[in-house]
Amino acid sequence: MRHRRKGRVLGRSPSHRKALFKNLASALFLTERDAELDENAPKVKGRITTTLHKAKEVRPLVEKCITIAKKAILAEEASLQFGTDAEHGSDEWKKWRESDNWRKWAETRAPAVTARRRVLQLIGDKQAVSILFSEIAPRFADRPGGYTRIVRLATPRLGDAGERAILELVGKNDRVSRKAERPSFADEPSPSEQPQEETAEA
Hints:
202 residues; three-stranded antiparallel beta sheet; 45% helix
């Protein structure tokens, strides 16, 4: 019996499965990087293709990371009022470092640093964490949840015929639904220009 055994095993040991989820989550965040000159540049930003079962298992991890990053935005914005624009190591920066503003800056920024460390613990990739906090989290600041979607693909994977799916971030590749409209033709007169038929009087 499988009582209290949540989730799919995916034919892997626990450590292998955890590493797989870390790699999939970081791969999704890394598709948002600026990779114009990269040989391995993603075809579409914010989208990865994997099997359906893997996508369903890694989705909660991705949503959790985005939620943690969103909560850190407020702490980072609050710390800006106590920060400085001086160059690191300059006399002005050293003066700010010894002032009360630095202590206030460190205290207000502490939750953001904790959030970054927590996400780094979850996905294990510093570049992915940086992209998540700088680009992805601000995009979903006003969204209460549901940051990803899973779209099944019609063609199975070659080799083992595994069911494939796309895991993508919401908002970038949304389809725009349009109401069906009657096509207009240039030669066809508009309804106001059409001659009215005279009704025969009885």
